Amino acid sequence: MNPEQSAHPVNLCITGGKKLTGTVVTNTSKNGAVALLCASLLNSGTTTLKKMPKIEEVYRIIEVLESTGVTTAWNASDLTINVPEKLRLDDIDVEAARRTRSIVMFLGPLMHRMKKFSLPQSGGCKLGSRTVRPHFYALEDFGVDINTTDDAFEVTANPQEAGEIILYESGDTVTENVLMAAALTPSTTVIKYASANYMVQELCAFLRLLGVRIDGVGTTTLTVTGVENIHMDVEYTLAEDPTDTMFFLTAAIVTGSEITIERCPIEFLELELLKLKKMGFSYTTSDVYLAENGLTKLVDITTHTSKLHAPADKVHSRPYPGLNADNLPFFAVIATQAEGQTLIHDWMYEKRAIYFTELDKLGADTVLADPHRIYIHGPTKLRANELVCPPALRPATILLIAMLSAEGHSVLRNIYSINRGYEGLVERLTDLGADITYLES
Predict the structure, then answer these.
(1) S-S: 20 plus which of 136, 151, 253, 432, CB 3.0-4.6 Å?
(2) CB 302: neighbour CB atoms within 10 A?
(3) By mean pLDDT, which of 110-124, 262-276, 397-411 is the weakest?
């Protein structure tokens, strides 16, 4: 395990009201990383994942993998993974497994390795009733029976050809689970109503490298021709994370700063940028170039000081190519600096809009209409305060951004939820001129 993972204290002191300047590089994707870690279980050869983000979510998955007999080794930001012939599921690190919802994506790979196994119930962000039932419905077609107990998934697998699968919902992780199940099913599987989001496209790129044929990448119908087995020594470089870009776009907007964000995955930010442009945000972009995986299109974005106004209609997320659900919370803190009333409709999660009301403690003016909708009036002058991070990644990050704008000294406690998804965030913000220090207690 990487010794850096527990090096930092969990509390921050932020002196806000400072302009950011300079250049920051977009990090690689959390959601892509955890999908590829799970997919490494499909390969009996050596998998090397390059530019892996060193974040808590990745550490938890690695802890789970290592507890079952998988060996991993870091070389700078590259991670090498070797999966043994037989996994020790009885020795699984239950605590680590329960701290990440990504453990549910072990179902697709493990159905090909053992007839019966048990996985701990998963946790991660606390965002309401995020059901795993669509995973069960889809994997049933592959001969997988899952019984849910109070604290575990009890799985019986008799792998079979699935043919055509209609997903119960167009979710990212369920699409990834079905892709991994189909990868080692030596027949053709058609997945309908699939997610086409960035992490799904990343997984498709990786599985293609492993010899799996996948047609329809970037659409909602995927045709997968699986293989009997996978034994390859492969290297894959992760693509950049649109939510990482969105964090720095939002920080620049809320602090009225001009910065350059390099390596932005533009195809997964176009709608967010269009909505921001219609709100008055000014920015320029470079020409398009390719990521190291040869597939993801990147640009550099330079932000300009802008006067924002509320959008004419509500801001809400949709499955790709709609506005990304993980980017929606950023519009809540942006709305605090926009003239007029903004309606944020977070239909996907029962609790997340409630977390947005924490912005009130920093001077925002919000009205919670119901668990899914919140009105935000702006612009308001944000003020410093001491807060505890909510147990959800994106709502926690917008508090940090608001504190960057709020003049005075703020304290943000228990930043584990932020560290689940962002690597070196404090250091990167400091390099841009932010005044942030770690607190021991």
Answers:
(1) 432
(2) 16
(3) 110-124
Which letter, b or e, does each residue of 61-89 get, where b requires 16 or more Cβ atoms within 10 Å of its Cβ? bbbbbbbbebebeeeeeebbbbbeeebeb
> Which residues touch 140 (CB under 8 Å, ≥6 apart)?
none
Residues 6 or more apart whose CB falls under 8 angstroms from that of 378 comprise: 308, 310, 335, 336, 337, 338, 339, 340, 342, 364, 365
pLDDT of 130 over the 70 cut: no
Amino acid letter at 416?
Answer: Y
User: Does residue 129 register a pLDDT over 70?
Assistant: no
Residue 23: per-residue pLDDT: 98
Q: What is the pLDDT, as a whole number, of residue 441?
A: 65
**What is the average pLDDT score of the chain?**
94
CB environment 378-397: b (16+ within 10 A), e (fewer): bbbebbbbebebbbbbbbbb
Confidence bin at 100 (pLDDT 50/70/90): confident
Confidence of residue 126 (pLDDT cuts 50, 70, 90): very low
Residue 175: closest CA among 108, 242, 100, 265: 108
How many Å from the N-terminal Cα to the C-terminal Cα in the chain?
25
The residue among 103, 52, 53 whose CA lies nearest residue 78 is: 52
What is d(CA 74, CA 52) in angstroms, rounded to the nearest whole number? 9
User: In whole angstroms, what is the distance from residue 203 CA to residue 217 CA?
Assistant: 10
Instruction: Give a three-class secondary structure readout of 173-206.
Output: HHHHHHHHHHHCCCCEEEEECCCCCHHHHHHHHH
| CA dist., res. 301 & res. 400, Å (int) | 22
Task: Round to whole Å and give the CA distance between 386 and 375.
Answer: 23
- Which single residue is written with the structure tokens 């499955």? 319
Query: What is the pLDDT at residue 360?
Result: 98
> What is the set of domains in the chain, with CATH numbers?
3-27+240-439 (3.65.10.10), 30-237 (3.65.10.10)
